[in-house]
Amino acid sequence: MDFTVTLKHHVARVETGLDRHLPAAGTRPARLHAAMRYSLQAGGKRLRPVLVLATAEVCGGMADAALPAAMAIECLHTYSLIHDDLPCMDNDDLRRGRPTVHRQFDEATALLAGDALLTHAFALLAENYPDKLAAALVRELADAAGSRRLIGGQMEDLLAEKKTDTTTEELEFIHLNKTAAMIEAALVMGGLIGGANEGSIAALRRAGRHLGLAFQIIDDILDATADTATLGKTAGKDAKAGKATFVRLHGLEKSRQLAEEHSTAALTALASLPGDAGFLKALVESMSRRVS
Amino acid sequence: MDFTVTLKHHVARVETGLDRHLPAAGTRPARLHAAMRYSLQAGGKRLRPVLVLATAEVCGGMADAALPAAMAIECLHTYSLIHDDLPCMDNDDLRRGRPTVHRQFDEATALLAGDALLTHAFALLAENYPDKLAAALVRELADAAGSRRLIGGQMEDLLAEKKTDTTTEELEFIHLNKTAAMIEAALVMGGLIGGANEGSIAALRRAGRHLGLAFQIIDDILDATADTATLGKTAGKDAKAGKATFVRLHGLEKSRQLAEEHSTAALTALASLPGDAGFLKALVESMSRRVS
């Protein structure tokens, strides 16, 4: 099937799934559940959940079976954005072209909505899969989202803001964990649901790591070159905050080259899968094209 | 064995377990892991983890097997305290006689340390139990800690602060979820680990609900009657914040009576367990004595 059509199918599945796999809109306390839905239903590329669905299919599973895990990944990603946007963190007013949760509601509600989405991610996994698979999925997500990975990356990102001599090694630690960890988890969770063997899981982990780094470098390039309307979030913010980015450390030219290298490495890892990784590869290529 | 001796044994197990079941102190990022340890190692009664250990024993299991789950419950409880203390929530400077995490570190670190402890709770369950038990424990904890229970209770608690006409029904919703949910989860998780049958799990759930309400009412009574030094946290804060409490709604006399009723109901539920619930019953009784 055509890449764009398949992508639309997957995204549509995700949008429908979000409604079905969240507590109903009027659930008590209504304000909390409204904030959870507001943040999750703000659109976005849905990259991570689409990766879960597509990877499950490549590995021989059904996309529908992967839907709760895809929702879990999106809940987790959304919680991290909500908390990241808070005044004590990035203090951002705009996300995907709309007021951030603490601007639309208030800080306390945003804090709790984030906590609730994080918790809901684990509930979705434990409630929708057979015990053995559920336990493996929880282990994967908890590890990727934990203090050594996603949250560790956010912490080092904050610490890096306060200094001017962030090294390449530190920047890579930040992005490997703040960005790549969840993309890696999306691919691995899709693989686990599709019944991938150990070799394929290792290949997916490698692909996720490179895809995550490529994705972050592309994000840095876009932050430096695109405008706020195109991004749907405040552009040039990283540079203004004096944040260490790939562009700041390596310049635009070298950053484009690095993005290309990581994309190629991701494609190579995906090519080693026994199934037809055509859609996944097209997805990686479409990302690279945004900045090439 | 004597109640006080057994309690000391359990608490010592918890203190040792906390060190063993957290990422090592120097783990990168060191600041994040220091904040997690700072908050967890602040002492406290360790009521919830002790309940997990003791209940597992009553139901025929070994307390040691219940240790990771006890740690999970304490990580989860501690995350909720860290986030609850933040400026956008209760804005508290003191917790267990020491500066709160955001006062000792900073707001962003406190936010992330809370997120990390919440995530770590699920990792502990998924990594330390056989798949079937792990999945059941994750389901129990995610439900108790989710948007309809723990976080829902915190949300309604915040909303109640802004109005003067909180009803008895609303107050009960808050405390059933903000406090009783995690105490119920502690008992049920202990039961699951100990291999309790359905009838015993139902009895533990009932006991947890009543014990949680008794505990919260006792907390309200102490907030109104004890001083800051005794409490290790700012006394009279609820009254000053205009918060709805049992004491405010029912007066001291009636609150003492309610606490007594819920303690008795918890004892009755515990008495229906096939095992020797002597220690658990003594624990409930020692709590009641604090305000009688």
Q: What do you see in this structure?
A:
Two copies of one chain form a homodimer. Chain A is mostly helical and 292 residues long. Chain A has a single domain, classed as Farnesyl Diphosphate Synthase (Orthogonal Bundle). Chain A has 14 helices and two strands, in the order ααααββαααααααααα. Chain A has helices spanning 3-20, 30-40, 47-58, 67-85, 101-104, 107-128, 131-145, 150-161, 168-194, 198-225, 228-231, 237-240, 246-271, 278-289, and strands at 94-95, 98-99. Chain A has a two-stranded antiparallel sheet with strand order 1-2. In chain A, a hairpin with a 2-residue loop joins β1 and β2 (98-99). In chain A, α1 (3-20) crosses α3 (47-58), α7 packs antiparallel against α9 (168-194) and α9 packs across α10 (198-225). Chain A is globular. Chains A and B meet through α2, α6, α7 and α8 of A and α2, α6, α7 and α8 of B.
Class from helix and strand fractions of chain A: mainly alpha
How many beta-strand segments of chain A? 2
Number of domains of chain A: 1
Quote the distance from N terminus to C terminus of chain A: 25 Å
Query: What oligomeric state best describes the polypeptide chains here?
Result: homodimer
CATH topology call of chain A? Farnesyl Diphosphate Synthase
Average pLDDT across residues of chain A?
Answer: 93
Largest sheet geometry of chain A: 2 strands, antiparallel
Helix and strand run of chain A: HHHHEEHHHHHHHHHH
Shape of chain A: globular
- CATH class type of chain A: Mainly Alpha
| Major β-sheet strand ordering of chain A | 1-2
